[in-house]
Write a structure and sequence with these properties.
The chain is α/β, with parallel strands linked by helices. It is built from 14 helices and five strands.
Length: 331
């Protein structure tokens, strides 16, 4: 397991993943031209380092740093992005206010937003800017979003808000309309290293985490058990109960990305050619007895369950139904 140091957020505020240099330059250019605005919505798929980008730009707004930033340690950056309780890593500039889901929660509460807006009403510690980073912004509850909206509509002087979102479509249109949007895109796929197969379904930071032998072992175990369910060689209820006893949030994250990669491989492949044709035949050939429509349904079911984990849903029953879906439709 990769350890995350207590000053991880401060560390990532001074170092930048190399593929984020172009979006950082866009933010800095907007500031130079006087068109920065007070609110930005930074979007893109998980694993691209959007939080890293937000923290580096926040640090530059607060400290006035310029020039190229050295790259961070990718496994540590990946561990920070993956960790649920970011409050463990909150040693940072006093005028930087980070809003993350509280420990063991998936949502951001109105109390958290009110605490930040109250702090924004005070003078900055160093007499300069104040920066708020909200991540992931789609985790805001409806009351929390309404409280944040008021701050977006009536920003205090010298305040900048950076909203980081994996799913901006889940944000209220009133919030999106008050932000400038910056889309972070994946860099070109890197070649395989050390004899390992390339993992095009993984964003760069997830790929860095995948270098961990513990991670690889865990993913192989999940993959094997899911394939046995598909082949009717293991009881999906038994596997669901086993998965439920572990880190369900991380497991669902892997499963969602896995299904998404398979769907993408099938859509991009030429159906008129043999199934071995394509840039990634392993993904294209996965679960061949499941129709594309069934895979879309399974992906949607994973996303629903992830959103409902903090809402009192019976995760055990939902996970059982999800895994049974891998054997329910064939042909």
């Amino acid at each position: 397991m990769i350890d995350v140091p207590g000053d991880a957020l401060a560390e990532l505020g001074g170092r930048l993943c190399i593929w984020l240099r172009e979006p950082l330059q866009r933010l800095e250019d907007a500031a130079t031209r006087g068109r920065l605005g007070h609110a930005w919505l930074i979007t893109g798929r998980p694993g691209l380092g959007k939080l890293n980008l937000a923290l580096v730009f926040a640090d530059r707004l607060l400290r006035g740093r310029v020039g190229a930033a050295p790259p961070p340690d990718l496994p540590a950056a990946a561990a920070l992005e993956a960790m649920r309780n970011r409050a463990q890593a909150l040693d940072h500039h006093p005028d930087l206010h980070c809003v993350f889901p509280a420990e063991d929660k998936r949502s951001i509460s109105i109390e958290q937003v009110r605490a930040v807006t109250d702090a924004l009403a005070l003078k900055s510690f160093h007499g300069g800017s104040k920066v708020v980073v909200v991540e992931p912004a789609e985790a805001l509850t409806v009351p929390a979003a309404n409280a944040l909206l008021k701050a977006l509509e009536e920003p205090s002087p010298g305040t900048y808000m950076l909203l980081v979102s994996h799913q901006p479509g889940r944000l209220a249109s009133t919030i999106r309309s008050r932000c400038q949007t910056l889309v972070v895109r994946a860099p070109p796929s890197a070649p395989a290293e050390r004899g390992r197969a390339a993992r095009p379904e993984l964003a760069p930071l997830w790929a860095a985490a995948a270098e961990s032998e513990e991670y690889i072992s865990k993913i192989n175990e999940l993959e094997a058990s899911l394939n046995l369910v598909y082949e009717s060689k293991r009881d999906p209820i038994e596997v669901a109960d086993q998965w439920g006893d572990e880190d369900l949030d991380a497991t669902l994250d892997w499963l969602g990305r896995r299904i998404h990669a398979v769907v993408r491989a099938r859509v991009l492949a030429d159906a008129s050619k043999p199934v071995t044709v394509g840039t990634n035949p392993v993904l294209h050939n996965a679960w061949p007895g499941l129709r594309l429509a069934a895979l879309f349904q399974q992906f949607a079911a994973v996303e629903r369950l992830r959103l409902q984990l903090d809402g009192g849903v019976n995760a055990e029953l939902a996970l059982r139904a999800l895994l049974m879906g891998f054997v329910a439709e064939r042909g």
